[in-house]
Amino acid sequence: MPNLLKAILASSLKEDDLSHEKLVERARDELFSHVHRCGVLQAAEEDQRHWMDETIDYIGERYPDLTDGDLRGLHQIGTRFCKPAIGHGEATTRMVEEAVS
Questions:
Q1: Residues contacting 98, CB < 8 A, separation 6+
Q2: What span, in angstroms and rounded, lies between the C-alpha atoms of 42 and 40?
Q3: pLDDT (tens digit, 9 = 90+) per residue, 4-38?
Q4: Nearest to residue 79, comparing CAs of 56, 55, 54, 52?
Q5: C-alpha 67: how far from its chain's center?
Q6: pLDDT tens-digit profile of 36-59?
């Protein structure tokens, strides 16, 4: 196979990988946007799980080129995003205020 053809094929594969990577990033950004808009951060853990399951299903429909592995990864990232290392919400604020006083 001539070197030029190899270079063209390699370039094409990189572009496909890049476009898929951009698609995953776009879906991730949309997921984070939904988390913020829907107020799921203040929801009970069970409600968060249910919400995340439904939202990932929606994202899978919206971005049909995402693989099952991509969607599982987004689910994991979204779940972690809902449980930050530094807590949020009323209960955490109350707990911090009690600890300080």
A1: none
A2: 5
A3: 655 554 444 444 555 889 999 999 999 999 998 98
A4: 52
A5: 13
A6: 898 888 888 899 999 999 999 999
What does the pLDDT read at residue 41?
A: 84
Calculate the alpha carbon distances from 47 to 39, 50, 67, 80 in Å.
11, 5, 25, 15
Q: Which two tokens stand for residue 51?
A: 């919400």
Q: Where are the domains of the chain?
A: 3-100
pTM over 0.85: no
41 touches 82 (CB < 8 A): yes
Nearest CA-CA partner of 74 in 44, 31, 37: 31
Residue 11 exposure: Cα atoms within 13 Å on the Cβ side:
6
